[in-house]
Amino acid sequence: xxxxxxxxxxxxxxxxxxxxxxxxxxxxxxxxxxxxxxxxxxxxxxxxxxxxxxxxxxxxxxxxxxxxxxxxxxxxxxxxxxxxxxxxxxxxxxxxxxxxxxxxxxxxxxxxxxxxxxxxxxxxxxxxxxxxxxxxxxxxxxxxxxxxxxxxxxxxxxxxxxxxxxxxxxxxxxxxxxxxxxxxxxxxxxxxxxxxxxxxxxxxxxxxxxxxxxxxxxxxxxxxxxxxxxxxxxxxxxxxxxxxxxxxxxxx
Length: 252
Prior knowledge:
CATH topology: UDP N-Acetylglucosamine Acyltransferase, domain 1
Strand content: 25-35%
CATH superfamily: Hexapeptide repeat proteins
Shape: globular
Mean pLDDT: 93
Helix content: 10-25%
Low-confidence stretches: none
Number of domains: 1
Number of helices: 5
Number of strands: 28
CATH class: Mainly Beta
């Protein structure tokens, strides 16, 4: 079955949903289409474990790991769906979840209650802090997934959705939410960051982003003093920022 072959190749890292080609992220639509076909196929089966009841299609089991994979999954309720790749030296703290088609590269830590959604692409040495979420993007098949490049630090309770791209070594402060419709303001230039040609929200490499707001400029909302949520780039990564994220290395 094409889906079963695709799952095996995804889990080994042989193929992936998206990769960077000449500086631009490109989706492999054939891989996404195979994943979508897998959701439609199969029969519901009892996949319960002990006292925990699970009913799922027989085409979509959990991804099983062995010590030789060198992926550290700490006991306590975490799971990885089939067709996801976790590189050697990845750490999952409980409970966390990685969905089908996701790619998590070496040295990355997924902290408690974190989510890596379907097809999300996560680079090397990323820290996804507690209760943060990377949304899944399956349809349409050509849509870019959420992409987190190498060295990114994502604070607690963040939400990154709808194909947002976070550039290398960016720092996303706690509570920041980024979607396709988010207006991202760069306080260092005084301008809003333009979308990508594909319409993605793009966090520039090395940017330090915190939650902010901007006033509504007209109508009754202005009179009422209402503000709209707007994430803000307050600076670009420097020595002080490096010191503030150094603790992660001690946890390894």
